[in-house]
């Protein structure tokens, strides 16, 4: 059975990193390697698309040429044999000619997705060519042959499971497969994607589809940390997390793992391990169907939150009022993160302001509405059952000097969440690090 190994953009970010990748992926264990685009590529492709949408063809061409020149340099550093160098140069020329063609006509959202797919297509082909130059056998498995969305823009798991088995069966003796993360086709056969961070999702879906013994997510940090190491000086990696704990952390801001990654693996009980490409021998973090010890494990923060306070002119629990509120968000396909209630008001948060104006207009027809933007949800995760005393006190005591906009506790045995102003995020994380972990 194949292990699934996913490597992000920094792991293939330079020719040297691509060469080092072989040391992690080439051995006797059968595996499928899922690669992201080289770091910086997707952002550059987004800029090209933005210029094309703005009909600024001169700028678009300049950005295309700049990115192409970067890749030509990568090819020159990566390959040492003339044959491989020629194949690499032809690959880059072909992909960038494809991108350049979009400057000649009208540009649409579907064409944007086709351009955004080029990063993963290039990174996987370059790695395949590099292994080929080193006389290492591998199979390049096109993700768009088996990764597909359904009409609801969700992964079509039955199709994926059947199709990937067909693709793998074509190479019964192969031990090493390379495929693209992030990219797929939609229900109509058009090029599409799993949104930003979707390479983790790809790895988890493939692992679930083939019943892999383990999905490994390789990044540049040694596992999931107990707090944000970019903000807090003293943090440590967590050895083990349950699926539910990891899902809470990923959703509420832990950048090492994409929020959607956990569910497919959890459904099939496939362990997910977070590993560090810089320290491959480090234990990392194991995420599995575990009965972890009771207690607080980690803290994460989610930015860009909008709080909406909805005050009824009559009793909040009057028949149909809450239903009317939630139906507004349902109509505009806007998810709610936190919610608290009182006798006459309900406060809730959203992380997507795309339809905020329409939502507020409808809410104001049934209630008085106040809005606070630029908020941050601080999420404290672990095994914190409401039957056990002390956990709520510990969190609130640590945050005693910070104004709290909302508190959510009891809805999940894995989560205590508070809402603070965005500019208090750093202070809150540091206070929790001291109050909960002692440093």
List how many beta strands DSSP finds.
16
The side-by-side strand order for the widest beta sheet comes to 3-4-2-1-7-9-10-8
**Class from helix and strand fractions:** alpha/beta
User: Percent of residues in helical segments?
Assistant: 25-40%
* Rg (CA only): 24 Å
Mean pLDDT: 92
Count of alpha/pi helices: 14
Form type: globular
Poorly predicted regions are none
**β-strand amount:** 15-25%
Terminal residue distance: 43 Å
Order of helices and strands: EHEHHHHHEHEEEHEEHHEEEHEEHEHEEH
Q: What this model shows, in words?
A:
- There is one protein chain.
- By secondary structure, this protein is of the alpha/beta class.
- Helix content is 39%, strand content 21%.
- It contains 14 helices and 16 strands.
- The protein has helices at 15-25, 41-53, 57-78, 82-100, 109-116, 118-133, 157-169, 198-210, 243-251, 262-267, 321-331, 356-363, 391-398, 425-437, and strands spanning 3-7, 31-35, 139-140, 176-180, 183-185, 191-193, 215-219, 240-242, 272-276, 285-288, 295-311, 339-341, 345-350, 368-383, 406-409, 415-421.
- The strands form three sheets. An eight-stranded mixed β-sheet has the order 3-4-2-1-7-9-10-8. The chain has a six-stranded antiparallel β-sheet with strand order 12-13-11-14-16-15. A two-stranded antiparallel sheet has the order 5-6.
- The longest helix has 22 residues, at 57-78.
- The chain is globular.
- It starts with a strand and ends with a helix.
């Amino acid at each position: 059975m194949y292990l699934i190994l996913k490597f992000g953009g920094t792991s293939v970010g330079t020719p040297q990193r691509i060469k080092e990748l072989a040391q992690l992926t080439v051995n006797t264990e059968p595996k499928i390697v899922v690669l992201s685009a080289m770091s910086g590529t997707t952002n550059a492709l987004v800029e090209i698309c933005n210029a094309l949408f703005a009909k600024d063809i001169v700028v678009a061409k300049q950005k295309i040429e700049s990115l192409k020149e970067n890749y030509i340099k990568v090819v020159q550093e990566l390959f040492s044999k003339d044959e491989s160098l020629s194949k690499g140069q032809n690959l880059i020329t072909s992909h960038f000619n494809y991108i350049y063609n979009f400057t000649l006509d009208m540009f649409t959202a579907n064409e944007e997705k086709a351009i955004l797919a080029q990063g993963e297509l290039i990174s996987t082909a370059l790695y395949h060519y590099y292994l080929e130059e080193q006389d290492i056998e591998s199979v390049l498995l096109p993700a768009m042959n088996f990764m597909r969305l359904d009409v609801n823009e969700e992964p079509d798991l039955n199709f994926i499971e059947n199709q990937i088995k067909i693709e793998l069966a074509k190479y019964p003796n192969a031990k090493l497969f390379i495929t693209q993360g992030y990219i797929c086709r939609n229900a109509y056969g058009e090029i599409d994607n799993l949104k930003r961070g979707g390479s983790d999702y790809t790895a988890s879906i493939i692992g679930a589809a083939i019943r892999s013994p383990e999905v490994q997510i390789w990044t540049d940090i040694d596992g999931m940390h107990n707090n944000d190491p970019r903000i807090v000086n003293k943090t440590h990696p967590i050895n083990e997390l349950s699926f539910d704990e990891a899902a809470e952390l990923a959703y509420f801001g832990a950048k090492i793992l994409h929020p959607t990654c956990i569910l497919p693996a959890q459904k099939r009980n496939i362990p997910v391990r977070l590993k560090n490409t810089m320290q491959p021998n480090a234990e990392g973090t194991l995420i599995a169907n575990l009965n972890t010890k009771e207690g607080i494990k980690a803290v994460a923060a989610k930015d860009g939150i909008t709080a909406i306070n909805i005050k009824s002119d009559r009793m909040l629990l009057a028949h149909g009022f809450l239903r009317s509120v939630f139906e507004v968000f349902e109509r505009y396909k806007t998810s709610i993160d936190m919610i608290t209630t009182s006798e006459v008001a309900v406060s809730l948060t959203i992380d997507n302001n795309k339809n905020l104006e329409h939502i507020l207009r409808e809410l104001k027809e049934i209630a008085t509405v106040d809005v606070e933007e630029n908020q941050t949800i601080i999420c404290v995760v672990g095994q914190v059952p409401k039957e056990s005393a002390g956990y709520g006190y510990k969190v609130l005591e640590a945050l005693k000097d910070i104004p709290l906009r909302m508190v959510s506790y009891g809805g999940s045995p894995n989560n205590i969440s508070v809402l603070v102003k965005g500019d208090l995020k750093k202070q809150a994380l540091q206070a929790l690090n001291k109050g909960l972990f002692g440093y």
